[in-house]
Specification:
alpha+beta; 18-stranded antiparallel β-sheet; 8 helices; disordered N terminus
Length: 503
Amino acid sequence: MINIRRGERRPMLLRRLITPWVLLLLVVPTGCATPKAPPREAEPMAAESHPPQEKTQEQNPETSPPSSVVAATVEAQVDSQNPPSTVAGSRNDTPKDALPGPEPGIEPSPPVAAPPPVDSGLSAGERFQSALEGMFVGAVVGGQAGPIGMAVGATTFLIYSAVTGKVPLQGPSGARKGRRDRDRSDPRSEESLEEELDREMKRQGSLESEIEEELKRQEDLLKQIEQEEPAQATQETNPASEGEESDVARRSATAAPEERAILDSLFTEQRIEIEKGVWDNPHKLQVLKRTLDADRDGKPEEIHYLDAATATLLRKEEDRDYNGAVDAWNRYEGGALVERKLDTDHNDKADVFELYAGGKLTRREIDRNGDQMKEVVYLYEGDSLIEEQHDTSQDGKVDFVISYQNRQRVRSEEDRDHDGVMDTWTLYSVSPTGEEVVTRIEYDKKGRGRADTFETYEQKKGKTLLVKREEDTNGDGTVDITSVYEQGKLQRREIANPSAVPL
């Protein structure tokens, strides 16, 4: 550590105070030139009465106009005394000999050259950048004299740099230098770079749009499946089994509808014989037909068929909306409901088909358009839905399948091109908020019958975003290209097998 005596501090302090200002005085005059006074206008009257004479006194360089301006003034005086000749044939034609010549003692001045083009100078932004850089330099130089010197130096250099566009001790500012460098750059390379960036941005924009469209398409498809139900389903005995319920109710296996207790005295009974095959029965049946016509209009509300020997219920037909037409057909085995058919669109044809076992629904099929083909099938196990199958193209082939576990959607399969082969597989998980979200989608884009493109998704701020895409371009079961995304934007691409990547 160096110790400084008290007597030595004052000279050091003075040197620290004087040094930045000496540097400033050395730097500032080099960039700032004293502006010249504008030339005085020539007085024609004085020039005519007093011919030019040689001056005996030395002119003041600050007040005397430049020689080029004097020559221009003298030439203007001569031109004013010698007007140009007019065009031949005009009323003011004058012979050349009659024109006055130049006065004796005055030599004609050479023609004045055109002024060079004026530079437009720095823009406001470039001056601001120069002033900012000058302020920093002034603060560093003046900082040797303490805080006051730093403030004074920063202010002085800021004003100097803003006026001249130059930074002391540094030369042209970064703004002017950057502009000069940009002017020297190759425009072709910039154009090619911009074109490449534009192409990449368009490609990424197209990819993002495809991802958004795919997610939206799947959501719309699921909503369509939930909403396309028979609109005129009757909500009477067991509304949960009419058509398709809400999404939550549909995922639970409904119980078989309970039989209403009706007094036997309200029925009319007769013994009939059912021919072979009418009820898909292998032989003739002897049954008791009991009819309930409570309003006595000749159109029964219920008809029960019982085994004549055991009085066990075999079949039941119902008019649930009391319009005079049967719209429900139930089949029983051992007195328990095993099959139910419903006419929900009132065309006298069943469009909902249900199977029961152990008092629980096990299968439900729905004909949505009345063509006697089932477009939707729900499969149940225990008390929960495990799978639903859809024919979205209504061509008799299942093209969309959803699988469930614990009443939560976990997987879906789809035949997007409707060629009879599944080509898209989607995996789901449950978010912390309890919502089912997409976590992975696999595609068969080459039509090989197995997935070759794999996309991984994550939930961020309530949005499903793509984070990784893997591609097997040659179909050998190994990933060749891996693309990594952040906030849905492509960040980098890793190529494991360059030979499998098309140029």
